[in-house]
Design goal:
- The structure is a single chain.
- This protein is mainly α.
- The protein contains 13 helices and three strands.
- Helix 6 packs antiparallel against helix 7 and helix 7 runs antiparallel to helix 8.
- The radius of gyration is 18 Å and the shape is globular.
């Protein structure tokens, strides 16, 4: 039965823990699209009372991942291919140019602090721990954007991430193929630390394409077109680095 791998929650902040666990379960397809889940059933599987689970599901409903059904529970909202394409394009428009702001504004010590989530991503990939992988991945991407000092941007990208389904992640984890994806984060961070905006942007374009394509089982561009050629408009839209 899908969803049996949801982990019991042991930590103090049960609402946030429930939100993180349920979000990961939805994004990876562990909680199935269009299926209906009761608060009580989810709470039992997580090992907590219904209250933090209901609060978490209401937040996920606000983000568009689930739909409340009176007297029945919550239905997982399916995201179509067009939805996922729109999310990818918006992330390209926002996250790639934002790297220039990060490079201009971030202190080196704050950038180096992002080594921790990068290492957590690699460890989770090795252990095939999808929930930890997604949690660390979110911490890295949003933590990087926060150094650009634009909280509205961070909030918008966070919501876009939460609307993405990466249902191909489970099969990649089972095959032990997440290591390459994990390494992409290190390449992005190395380029940002080196204040190399051009390389950082190119690495981010490739990474966001892989997030949309490979994880979801989408084929690479046909006809020999490279990822960077396909999304060159994103690089052209980026502001020039100061100095």
């Amino acid at each position: 039965m899908a969803g049996e791998q949801l982990k019991s929650l042991k930590r103090q902040n049960l609402r946030e823990d429930a939100l993180s666990s349920l979000r990961a379960a939805i994004l990876t397809g562990e909680l199935e699209p269009d299926a209906i889940y009761s608060t009580a059933g989810l709470a039992e599987r997580l090992g907590v009372s219904p209250t933090p689970v209901r609060e978490a599901m209401l937040e996920l409903a606000r983000q568009g991942l689930v739909q409340p059904l009176p007297n029945r529970g919550f239905q997982i909202v399916a995201a179509g291919e067009h939805d996922l394409d729109e999310i990818r394009d918006l992330r390209l428009m926002l996250e790639v140019p934002a790297l220039v702001l990060v490079i201009e504004r971030a202190a080196r010590r704050d950038l180096e602090a992002l080594r921790l989530p990068v290492e957590a991503i690699a460890e989770a990939a090795t252990e095939r721990d999808l929930e930890s992988f997604l949690t660390a991945d979110r911490a890295f991407h949003l933590g990087l954007l926060e150094l650009g000092e634009n909280q509205r941007l961070v909030r918008i990208v966070g919501e876009l991430r939460d609307q993405t389904r990466v249902v191909g992640l489970s099969s990649l984890a089972s095959a032990g193929a997440l290591d390459a994806t994990a390494a992409e984060h290190s390449a992005i961070l190395d380029a940002v630390v080196a204040r190399d905006a051009e390389s950082a942007q190119r690495f981010m374009v490739e990474h966001l394409h892989h997030t949309r394509g490979i994880w979801a089982g989408q084929a690479e561009p046909e006809g020999g077109e490279t990822v960077l050629e396909r999304y060159a408009w994103t690089l052209r839209a980026a502001p020039e680095q100061a100095g």
